Amino acid sequence: MNIIPINDPLDSRLDAYRDLRHEDVRRRGPRFIAEGRLVVRRLLASNYETDSVLAEPDRLGDLEPLIDPMTPVYLVNQALIREVAGFNFHRGLLACGLRKPMLPVADLESLAEPVALQRPLALAAISLNDLENLGSLIRTAAALGIFHVVLNPQTADPLCRRVLRVSMGAALKMNFYDLPEPLSWFEANLARWRDESTRHQAWATIAMTLASDSIALERTSQMHDCAKMIVMGNEGDGLPHAIQEACVLRAKIPMAPGIDSLNVAVAGAIALYEFTRSHR
């Protein structure tokens, strides 16, 4: 390995790891940080390039075969890694990955076309702000075989340190699609769905909502012959009404009287499980 001991906390080679507690979770910059052995291992095994590794001397263990010989491995002591990271960090292992561009949302049209027996599934997260909720949704989606995730710019960075940690590195397996104008895309998709000549390029978008006229989610599992996308909204406000109207279906999770909502990560887990039932 390309081992480089560092004793100076001001060394510029450590800048990517500096003050992580106050990272900007909105700015999707060129680099991202993986924290802890499991997530670092998954970064090293992913198709993302690892820019560097920062570790205490006894934390590398069996990771050596996964580390490219040219990747710098900065060895530091426990006090230094805490000083640089800016919080009481006790996992002793960080890595810096290089981000790939998000995929253009136009790619979803060709993905929807019936080229395989089993049609694709996707998750759209619109303006999700809570990092734990987003990480949990991504982890659940991956567990259920969903690897296409559509995000608007108002949704938190899916590769920020806390989202990566909560998703247990599952975010590194995802295909992320950039959705700069959600309403325009959903309206155009709905138009394609309603036109028999273009329906093969459209997604059956299913908005999760508490609207009184929404159908029970279980009814959506009967849709077998189309690409399906479940659409989750903001933690506090849900999906904007206009986006709900621009989806093919609006669905809800039936709940007991007097209970009107669930945490978005919990609701998402229930919805994704039901959503994938026909595929299983």
Fold and architecture overview:
The protein is of the alpha/beta class and 280 residues long. Helices cover 25% and strands 21% of the residues. The protein has 8 helices and 13 strands. An 8-stranded parallel sheet has the order 6-9-8-7-12-10-13-11, with helices on both faces. It has a 5-stranded mixed sheet with strand order 1-4-3-5-2. Helix 4 packs parallel to helix 8. The termini are far apart.
How many domains, as an integer? 2
Strand content: 15-25%
Overall 3D geometry? elongated
Number of strands: 13
**CATH fold naming of the largest domain:** Alpha/beta knot
**Largest sheet, if any?**
8 strands, parallel
CATH class of the largest domain: Alpha Beta
The helix-and-strand class reads alpha/beta
Helicity level, as a percent range? 25-40%
Distinctive features:
2 domains, 280 residues, Alpha/beta knot, elongated, 60s Ribosomal Protein L30, Chain: A, five-stranded mixed β-sheet, alpha/beta, eight-stranded parallel β-sheet
Summary of the model, kept short:
The protein has eight helices and 13 strands. It has helices at 37-44, 78-85, 107-112, 131-143, 161-166, 182-194, 241-245, 264-275, and strands at residues 2-5, 31-35, 49-55, 72-75, 93-98, 103-104, 121-125, 148-151, 175-178, 203-208, 215-216, 227-232, 249-252. The longest helix has 13 residues, at 131-143.
